[in-house]
Amino acid sequence: MKRQEDHHYWVYIIASSSGTLYIGVTSNIDLRVAQHKSGRFDGFSKKYECNRLLYLEKYSVVQTAITREKQLKGWRRERKIALIERENPGWLDLAADWGKPMALPEWALRKD
Fold first, then answer.
1. SS3 call for 19
2. Among residues 53, 64, 61, which one has the least CA distance to residue 23?
């Protein structure tokens, strides 16, 4: 059984290539991002092809995460963009390499 302090909740902003923003909350960020990227998460984000993770925050209390999600959803687009650009000015997909095998440098593969 997981202890409460081991459980995390994530508030995230995911976007389409055209800049449509989606804000969500989840207890399993890896699974949720995979769902967005594969188009398995029905609704707004699937319709607008929101699949690039741009921003996330971690919380240990679910109600705090839900409150923050609602707060962000209430913001004007300009304020959301300012938040993203403060932390991720290049709008890079923070999950671009999630789930991919890590390429080790040649020196790490050498045997003594």
1. coil
2. 53
